Amino acid sequence: MRYRLTLFLTFMLAITLVLAACSGDEDESAEEVDATESSESDGEETDGSEGEGDSEASGESAGDQVLVFARGGDSESLDYASTTDGESSRVTKQIYESLLDFEKDSFEVKAGLAHDWEVSDDGLTYTFMLEEGVTFHDGTDFNAEAVKTNFERWADPDHEFAFTDDGYVYSMYGTMFGGFKGDEGHVIKEINVVNDHEIEFVLNQPLGFFLQNMAMSYFAITSPAALEEHGASINENPVGTGPFKFVSWSKDDSIILEKFEDYRKEGLPKLDEVIFQVIPDNAARLIALRSGEIDIMDGLNPDDAAGIEQEESLVLHTRAANNFGYLGLNTQKAPLDDPLVRQAINHAIDRSAIAEALYAGYAQPAVNPVPPGYLGYNDELELYEYNLDKSKELLAEAGHEDGLEIELWTMPVARPYMPDPETVSEIIQNDLGEIGITAKIVREEWAPYLEKTAAGEQELYMLGWSGTNGDPDYFLSSLLHGSNAGSSNRSFYENDEVDKLLDQAKRAVDQEERADLYKKAQEIIYEESPMIPLVHSEPVLATSSDVKNYVPHPSTSESLAEVELNR
């Protein structure tokens, strides 16, 4: 395997040099991103040389069942609950399992580490019957105590395994369960171990999507022994019950996993090894796929989809439109603290042009920060009109008739909702220039980009969100509830009325009531424009025709347990 990867890296270097020689400014931008990506390992403890050695040893024993999954950026953390990064969950989905799971191609809940469950008539008590005979990758037993330890770790900032002093933040736990231990809105009252393989969750109040939460990859179960052994470095030493075991992580290069021989499902996994390889450039990933150096590529440029369909050696895959890409506005920084300025920018962005130019029919302009078809989607709101005159009037009303200067932070990696962020940023820059706003594009590596936007260093910024449980709360509360400002709410948007509506919807059991509350929240958000939804995309990706049983999940993170290679 080391020989194979070495050839690939040599090949990619040659391609990069050719592109650099033949291209103009566009390639200089790509080179700048690539160069910054290579320094992301600063401050990390994992030794990249160990990753190479493990790759060689593992590759020799794995034979042909070694799958290489290429993606645009590295994972931020392998401690799933402390990150919202999709590149992280793509990997942790293979290592860890949750009490419940989703069907292969939908958000329909099914059994996971719990084979059965019961819900009390009042909706306040959930009892889960756990699988027996399950072991973690470190050989210790999975049981009810392990489940309790994990949930208490996320809920209690003072828990010995919370690692809050080391910077761990469990924003998704707070979002999905109404806060943390001691908070008024925290819905989990107590967790009771009935016996080794039965556990009971008692709630303070109903939560309309509790079972869906229990299937989310954020709330998978880590070995308590591993938490004890590794402490705050658990993010680089993951130990779960999933089909694959962690082997090594060479930052900004590859993460290597190997088959867990004692996996609880007989005959699975079918692969011996999975390598998550970082190749920042979309075109370079496609070249690698066509040459047979990789087996799956995410972040396919939509314009390449038609060609893929004509190639016998490749297979085109699509995910459901379960996302939205957006232009975020830091509402705590002037002049973006003024709703008039935010509305002016909203009217200046030509979403239809972005969708038509970059998505080859695999996207539609976005109105709301939640995908169409979701519970409570407000279809009475219309797309902000692309109207430069209106934009200029609003800017003048806000006191900026002479224009202004602003920073526009752009993502360095392709994401399912935005396969070509660099070009999107240039389109936005041009649109803003038409109304007198000079936008300076700022580029960062992926991990620092996430860290700095969470810290509020940005003005305008580009990101997106993909659903992971099929419920609108995951979009609206994660991105726009005031309690998440500085974590998943990178617009630092705070509105008491919106918070109240979202809190009520979270706790309502009647789905029609929830839908009405979400529609009202979207009306306020639409008017105040803390973010500008750009598009809902239908992400495209490609595999070698040798890859069998691969089913892309709407959440963007799917198990590879049943995947095999026919070669």
From TrEMBL:
Residues 27-62, 547-567 are annotated as: Disordered. Residues 1-20 form the signal peptide. The keyword Signal applies. Residues 108-486 form the Solute-binding protein family domain. InterPro entries: Peptide/Ni-bd (IPR030678), SBP_5 (IPR039424), SBP_5_dom (IPR000914). Residues 27-57 have a biased composition (Acidic residues). One of its GO terms (molecular function) is peptide transmembrane transporter activity. GO terms for cellular component: ATP-binding cassette (ABC) transporter complex; periplasmic space. The keyword Transport applies. Pfam families: SBP_bac_5 (PF00496). GO terms for biological process: peptide transport. Keywords: Signal, Transport. Belongs to the bacterial solute-binding protein 5 family. This is ABC transporter substrate-binding protein.
